[in-house]
C-alpha cells in the first residue's frame, strides 16, 4: 500500500501529516475500545487485532482481521507468541520515504501499519494482588513492549497509543486533518509510550530484586546498580514550597494517590509534605491516637482507649502551634469530634474513614481539606527515602523499625516502672518523627513538650521543658514533674540530664553511643532518674 505523505517544510525525514489506513490493536485494558474501533471503521481504517481484542470487537459486529490470519501464522505457546512476526514489525518499522525499505516491503507483501494501539498485561496490578510467582511471570508482557517501542521509534510515520484516555485525542485529529495525524501529536505519544514501557520494565526489575533478596536474606532490598525513579503525574500544584517555585505530585504506585480528598481547597505542596509526616507518625500507634502536625513536625500527640480523650490530650500539648495545622486520626472520627474540629482553624483533617454525618458537619467549613489515606502496597519506591543533593540522589531505607520493650536496656540503678516503660515507648515513637535534634517529654501517653530542630541538644531539652511548663504559673506545679523524656540520639554532655532533673523528669530513653555515656548515666543516678538505652538512633533531618 503506497501512502501519500505531507512533507514537513523543516525536514526531509519527518512528514508533518501521516494518513491512517491500517491499525493494529492488542490491548489488555479494553475500556472504550469498542467505541473507538467503531469510529476507526467509519473512517475506512482497516483493523488487525490479537485474539482477546479481536474477539471483543467481533462480538460487537466490528470487522477485524486477526493477527494469525494476517500473518498466516498461528498464535503459539499459549499465546506467548502472536505478534512477533516480520509482517507486523516490517509494517510498523519501515521508512515510508526510503526507497530500499519500500522495495523490501513490496517484495515480501508487507502492508503498512500506521496506528498501533497497545497496552500491556497487568503485571503491576497482579503483583499488588500478591499473586503467586507463576501468575506474576505470566503477566510479564513481551510482544506488547516490543510493539510499543517499534511504533514509538518510527513515530516519523507511525502513531502509537498506550492510554485509552488518548482515544478521543486521536479521533479529534483524524476529524481535523482528513484522517491524518500530525507530527507534533505523534512525538507526544511516542514520548508517553517510552515513559510507559520504562515504568513497566522498572516495576518488573523491582519485583525480581525484592524476590531474589528476600529469598536470600529475608531482609531489606539490595541496592540496584541503576536506580530508575518513575512516577505518574497526579496533579499540578499551584506552586511549590514557596510561590516562586513550581510544584507537582507524582505517584510511584501506578496512579494511586496518597489520599482521597473528600472536600476542601486544592492540596498544596506543603499540605502534602505535612500529610506524609502525619501519616508516618500515626502508623506507630495501635490504640486510638491523634496527632497535630505543623511544618512537618508533631506539635501534639495523644493516645487513649477513647479517641475523643486522645484528641484532648494531643491538642492540650500546644494548642497555639496546632492552630492552622494538620490533624490526623488513626480511627474514624465521631460526630462530637467533627463538631470540635470546625470550632477552630485547621488546614487538613485526615482519618481512615469519615461517616456521612461527620462529612455534613465538616462541610460547614467548605475550605477545610478532608482526606482519607490510601493503603499503599510495599514496593521498592515506597521503601526508600530519597533526597536530591546537587546533581545526585541520596537514598536510604525508611526508618520503619518497630519500637518494642525488648530493645530496651536499663543503664541506671533505678529501674523504670511498667508505666514508665509505656510512657517512654510512647515518647520515643513520637520523637522518631520530630526533626533533630529531637526531644519529647510525655506523661499519660500524651506529649506535653516537644523540642525540635535545634542546633544543640541542650537547647532542644530546654525548649521542650519550656513548652511543657509555659502555661503553669507556679514552679511547684510543673507539668514536667514525674514525666518522661525521649531523645532521638545520645546526649553529648551531662548538662542535658541536669536540666531534666531540675524539671522533675523521672525517666529517660535514649540510644546511647556517646563517649561520655558513663558520665550521663552517673548524672542520672545522682538525680535518681531511671535511664534506658533503646540502642538505635532515630535522627530525622
Can you describe this structure?
The chain is of the alpha/beta class. 37% of the residues lie in helices and 19% in strands. The protein is built from 19 helices and 24 strands. The strands form six sheets. A six-stranded mixed β-sheet has the order 11-16-15-14-12-13. A hairpin with a 7-residue loop joins strand 1 (6-7) and strand 2. Helix 8 runs antiparallel to helix 10 (183-217). The longest helix is centred in the middle third of the chain and has 35 residues, at 183-217. The radius of gyration is 31 Å and the shape is elongated. The protein starts with 5 loop residues before the first strand and ends in an 8-residue tail after the last strand. The relative contact order is 0.07. The model is unreliable at 7-12 and 377-381 (pLDDT under 50).
Shape: elongated
Strand content: 15-25%
Number of strands: 24
Strand order of the largest sheet: 11-16-15-14-12-13
Mean pLDDT: 88
The proportion of residues forming helix, as a percent range, comes to: 25-40%
* Broad structural category: alpha/beta
Runs with pLDDT <50, length 5+? 7-12, 377-381
Q: Please tally the helical runs, counting DSSP H or I stretches of 4 or more residues.
A: 19
Main sheet makeup: 6 strands, mixed
Distance between the termini: 64 Å
Topology:
Blueprint: E1 6-7, E2 15-19, E3 22-26, H1 33-42, E4 46-49, H2 51-59, E5 65-66, H3 67-71, H4 86-93, H5 99-107, E6 115-118, H6 123-128, H7 133-138, H8 143-153, E7 159-161, H9 167-176, E8 180-182, H10 183-217, E9 232-237, E10 247-251, E11 259-263, H11 269-282, E12 289-294, E13 297-303, H12 307-317, H13 319-322, E14 326-329, H14 335-341, E15 348-350, H15 356-362, E16 369-373, E17 384-389, E18 392-397, E19 409-410, H16 418-431, E20 439-442, E21 447-451, H17 457-469, E22 484-487, H18 495-503, E23 507-510, H19 517-526, E24 530-533
Parallel strand pairs: 3-4, 3-6, 4-5, 6-7, 14-15, 15-16, 22-23, 23-24
Antiparallel strand pairs: 1-2, 2-8, 9-10, 11-16, 12-13, 12-14, 17-18, 19-24, 20-21, 20-22
Helix pairs in contact: 8-10, 14-15, 17-18
